[in-house]
Recover the amino acids of this structure.
């Protein structure tokens, strides 16, 4: 049985960890069957980062009901809450993406995913990504490469230091922090390499995939409440991401936003301080009126 506390500790220490047999391979096989037409219809990417011999598409929760099983994986959510929850009130879904790397694809440039966001990130983990292989990852077909130690701010030359190559099978999961140098390897095989990425980030960040456009209310109202909250239909206390001062989940109930009254959504310590502030003024006013 997998221990989320131990896996979270490994993740923080090494920048990555692999969970063998994290889900039933039949879930992955079902995803592959549903995504096959989309892979076929999707054009190759443009640009050296995304890869000219790579196909990518997102919005996976709209494309397969099996995707929710990966996004809401209980063990991985527990790890994400442990790692990211130290710096936010709630975590959120950063992206879902399916990737198909074709023969002849060059190795991806080593990068840190958290460089999406500017500013000093010292001491804060912004992001946790999970790669679910659809095809077995091998050194020849472009398995993800990672440079241990690079997540701690150590100076690592990815062109001189030997990376770890994540050789994993469908049903297993590769977890890595947004702070670790990594990148897909070159595909020198004769076969495509497919995978799904599910990413989580701090709840107060702008997400890589624009969840509000990908999953508008008419789509998200069919999600269970936890999934809807993960994609953004929840406030991050204090009061961040509200609609007319209320939780955006009101949009999933068909509520008209005109006429809504704003409602505080504060952290406990903030609510306590505000309550004391209000009580002090009310007491003073009562004293004046009583005098």
């Amino acid at each position: 049985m997998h221990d989320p506390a131990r896996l979270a500790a490994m993740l923080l220490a090494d920048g990555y960890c692999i969970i063998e047999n994290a889900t039933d391979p039949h879930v992955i096989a079902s995803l592959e069957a549903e995504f096959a037409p989309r892979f076929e219809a999707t054009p190759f990417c443009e640009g050296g980062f995304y890869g000219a011999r790579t196909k990518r598409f997102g919005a996976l929760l709209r494309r397969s009901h099996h995707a929710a099983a990966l996004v809401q994986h209980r063990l991985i959510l527990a790890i994400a809450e442990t790692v990211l929850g130290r710096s936010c009130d709630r975590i959120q879904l950063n992206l879902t993406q399916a990737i198909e790397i074709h023969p002849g694809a060059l190795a991806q440039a080593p990068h840190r995913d958290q460089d999406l966001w500017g500013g000093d990130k010292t001491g804060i983990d912004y992001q946790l990504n999970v790669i679910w292989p659809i095809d077995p990852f091998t050194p020849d077909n472009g398995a993800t490469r990672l440079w241990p130690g690079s997540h701690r701010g150590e100076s690592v030359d990815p062109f001189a230091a030997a990376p770890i190559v994540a050789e994993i099978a469908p049903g297993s999961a590769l977890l890595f922090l947004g702070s670790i140098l990594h990148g897909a390897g070159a595909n020198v095989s004769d076969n495509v390499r497919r995978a799904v990425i599910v990413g989580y980030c701090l709840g107060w960040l702008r997400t890589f995939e624009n969840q509000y456009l990908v999953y508008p209310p008419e789509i998200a109202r069919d999600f269970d409440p936890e999934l809807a909250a993960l994609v953004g239909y929840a406030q991050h206390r204090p009061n961040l991401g509200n609609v007319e001062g209320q939780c955006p989940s009101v949009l999933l109930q068909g509520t008209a936003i005109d006429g809504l009254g704003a409602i505080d959504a504060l952290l406990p310590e903030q609510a306590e301080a505000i309550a004391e502030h209000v009580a002090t003024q009310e007491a003073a006013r009562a004293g004046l009126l009583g005098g």
